[in-house]
Amino acid sequence: MSGKEYLIFDLDGTLVDSMPFWENLATELLHRHGIDQLPADLHDRIQTMTLTDSAVFIQELFALPVTAESLAQEMRALMDQHYRNDIPLKVGVYAYLQNAYQSGRKIVLATASSSVLAKDCLRRLKLLPFFDFVFSCEDVGQDKTQPTIYQAAARYFGQQPNKISVYEDALYAASTAKRAGFHLIGVYDHQSKKEWTDLQNLADETIDFATVVKGENK
């Protein structure tokens, strides 16, 4: 358990195993529009974008005869189904959050997903009561290549960054939080295991929730 009283958690890849669904979203969307031949690096190119920005990118790249806004709505609808129905919780997360909540920690979410989708997912997985607030990149107007969302959470807490732990699995987001002065806890995720060594070197602490639940500390 983090020694800090104030905790910021990422959602995708940190608390829930949603990254396979996000990685397949552009493919799922484009298949619906009759496009099966996709660039091999498409996911890498949109990985750090908000859903709105990725819709604009996809609309322009494939010259689709629909608006970027309608694509974004379609993508939200697809992910809404997944968040409400089948995105699973990562092993060990519930017990960890419950312990943090019961010990009096103040907890917020900072996610690149929309706040509505995030809340739907947390509610289904019985996690929503643990969180004081849900921050979304779309709501603050910047993705996690910028520290805006973490700074918004710090203002909410009324604390300086060094008093707050940020839990992130993605190296680019973790780097942003670290540069902004937050206490960084790197979270292991099998989808980003290629970055794990770099994340371990960057982070102040690391954790694998699946081993914590077995009584092993990372």
UniProtKB/TrEMBL annotation:
Superkingdom assignment: Bacteria
Pfam families (alphabetical): HAD_2 (PF13419)
Entry-linked PANTHER family: 2-DEOXYGLUCOSE-6-PHOSPHATE PHOSPHATASE 2, PSEUDOURIDINE-5'-PHOSPHATASE
This protein's name: HAD superfamily (YcjU)
